[in-house]
Design a protein that fits this description.
EC number: 1.3.1.86
CATH architecture of the largest domain: Alpha-Beta Complex
Enzyme class: oxidoreductase
Pfam families: ADH_N, ADH_zinc_N
Organism: Roseovarius albus
Structural class: alpha/beta
CATH topology of the largest domain: Quinone Oxidoreductase, Chain A, domain 1
Strand content: 25-35%
Number of domains: 2
Order of helices and strands: EEEHHEEEEEEHHEHEHEHEHEHEHEHE
CATH superfamily of the largest domain: Medium-chain alcohol dehydrogenases, catalytic domain
Distance between the termini: 17 Å
Keywords: NADP, Oxidoreductase
Number of helices: 11
Length: about 375
């Protein structure tokens, strides 16, 4: 196929509001480096990192969650020098988007041409040399380098994971960030068969994937969500759904599980933090990969000490985790939850829908 010199792209011009997302039809098409492939993008999913990076929410000077005002307009108190997930500065203009599905149309000099034509999904963590868990040795796709809100992207060949699946590109694009995040989050807490797991943010892309991964491990699920999403969550296999707005959330969790829970998995933070930890049994495990409801929480340290709790965070994933998890997609053990699709030029509108959190699953930008 003929690869055009220019392409469509949504370019982030700086930290701030939705107006920082600029749609272009004349952006230079990237050229693959020797160890890279060029992917023609079929679809690219949305995730919280897109919002957090655009608004510089990661800055330690921001103490709120992703509010409607902050998500749409940015945070005046944010420090640009701390604007990325690793609290370092990123450069603009930047094409965001970590959740790419597409096919390879060209390869760099070091890559076998037999890869041309492969359907792939992109592993968003680009590990460098050295210890994989150090931020200085990890680059995130669509953050420290250009991502997938465009027609084409050049990506390291080892991060373009071949996928044998009948799923559409839009369905495949629901997976990359949520699957790496969810599998890492579950791996850190290590739920066992028969254990009770409570999941905050259960209806989102990460949450619905966490549910499926925990069920594959034989755990029983209490989902925290809103009543209007309960039917979808029961259909996924949850044993119980409790209302996140309940004034007695800790007791509701315990009642649903018939006692304290073994594991709490959290992508929300904020006011849910205390109830999640209050519902844990002695030697229970809490793991978190997000704090969209607010990073600042009040916590009695004695609760951690005298219940012998285990707390873990989950961000940078181990090398190879995503490629192994992709086999669950190929064998049909994980199902995509595609909530909605938007055209590329409507990325800002897609982000508004994403931030409204009325959907179940994930929202995707489709290139065709």
């Amino acid at each position: 196929m003929t690869i055009p010199n220019t392409m469509r792209a949504v370019v982030l011009t700086g930290h701030g509001g939705l107006d920082k997302l600029v749609y272009r039809e004349d952006w230079p098409t990237p050229q693959p480096k020797p160890d890279e492939v060029l992917v023609k993008i079929g679809a690219c999913g949305l995730n919280n990192t897109d919002i957090n990076t655009r608004t510089a929410w990661y800055s330690k000077t921001v103490r709120d969650g992703i509010t409607d005002k902050g998500g749409k307009g940015g945070y005046a108190e944010a420090e640009a020098a701390q604007g990325s997930w690793s609290n370092t500065e990123i450069t603009f203009p930047r094409i965001q988007g970590a959740d790419v599905a597409g096919h390879i149309v060209a390869v760099g000099a070091e890559i076998d041409t037999t890869r041309i034509g492969e359907r792939v999904i992109v592993d968003p963590w680009l590990h460098g040399h050295g210890e994989w868990h150090l931020a200085e040795n990890a680059c995130y796709f669509g953050s420290e380098c250009d991502g997938g809100f465009a027609d084409y992207v050049a990506i390291r060949a080892s991060n373009a994971i071949p996928i044998q699946s009948d799923l559409t590109y839009a369905e495949l694009a629901t997976f990359p960030t949520v699957l790496t995040t969810a599998e890492h989050l579950v791996w850190r807490a290590n739920p066992q068969p028969g254990e009770w797991v409570v999941i905050a943010g259960a209806s989102g892309g990460v949450g619905t994937t966490v549910i499926q991964l925990c069920l594959l491990r034989g755990a029983r699920i209490v989902a925290i969500s809103t009543p209007e999403k309960a039917e979808n969550l029961f259909a996924l296999g949850c044993a119980a759904v409790v209302d996140r707005n309940s004034t007695s959330l800790e007791n509701d969790i315990r009642d649903a599980a018939g006692g304290p829970v073994d594991v709490a998995l959290d992508v929300v933070g904020g006011i849910l933090f205390a109830s999640l930890n209050g519902a844990l049994r002695q030697r229970g495990r809490y793991s978190t990969s997000g704090a969209i409801a607010g990073p600042m929480v009040e916590f009695d340290l004695r609760h951690l000490i005298y219940k012998d709790l285990q707390f873990t965070g989950a961000t940078i994933t181990p090398p190879g985790l995503f490629a192994r998890a992709c086999r669950l997609i190929e064998t049909g053990q994980l199902s995509p939850l595609l909530a909605a699709t938007f055209p590329l030029k409507d990325l800002a509108r897609a982000q508004e829908a994403f931030m409204a959190k009325t959907h179940v699953g994930n929202i995707v930008v489709a290139m065709e």
